[in-house]
Amino acid sequence: DLCSSSTGAVEMEPDGLILIGKEDDIKKSQRVTAKVNGREVVVFYHEGKFHAMDSRCYHEGGPLRLGEIEDINGQACIVCPWHKYKITLETGEGLYEGINPLEPSPTPQWQSKGVKQRIHKVTIDNGNVYVSPPDLSVSFDSDYFADKYKNSGDLAM
Ligand code: FES
């Protein structure tokens, strides 16, 4: 059955986009993993929007596809199952809770470490969900683990 692969048989579309799956199916399952140019990518459907990012956490390669989504200061974040790092779905920023000791009564505030996880552009067309091939002229911390697990066959834990 050619249609049953949930890990996403990769098909190249004429315009270079990579087909991930049917819009309706991903809306139901809320997340799906696929190989995009050999790298593990996870596509989430969360609160009416699709997001795609490298599936291997920028910290030590944890499987973000198995993480929970949490709202942090109004930003939807995936929480890595390994060491609980938080990564925004929208931008791939790593968030941390920091304290400014110079404040009169310091309280922890969520702050950004910058974009750590490579995100991928999602396109919806005619009921299908596509991801754009990554622009490798720009690099992100998660690239190291994307390469390490590249073409590793099974989606290992
Ligand atoms: Fe993701 Fe450490 S591997 S938090």
Beta-strand percent range: 35-45%
Question: Which structural class do you get from the secondary structure elements?
Answer: mainly beta
Shape: globular
Question: Roughly what percent helix?
Answer: under 10%
Write down the Rg: 16 Å
Number of strands: 12
Helix count from the secondary structure assignment = 2
| Major sheet details | 5 strands, antiparallel
Low-confidence stretches: 1-6
Distinct compounds present: FE2/S2 (inorganic) cluster
**Would you list the SSEs in sequence order as H and E?**
EHEEEEEEEEEEEH
Give the overall average pLDDT: 90
Gap between N and C termini: 26 Å
Largest beta sheet: what is the strand line-up? 5-6-7-8-9
Task: Briefly characterize the structure.
This protein has helices at residues 23-29, 143-148; strands at 18-22, 31-36, 39-46, 49-54, 68-72, 75-79, 86-88, 93-98, 109-115, 119-120, 122-125, 128-131.
How would you describe what is shown here?
By secondary structure, the protein is mostly beta strands. It has two helices and twelve strands, in the order βαβββββββββββα. The strands form three sheets. The chain has a five-stranded antiparallel β-sheet, with no helix packed on it. The chain has a four-stranded antiparallel β-sheet with strand order 2-3-4-10. The two termini are 26 Å apart. The site of FE2/S2 (inorganic) cluster has 9 residues, from loops.
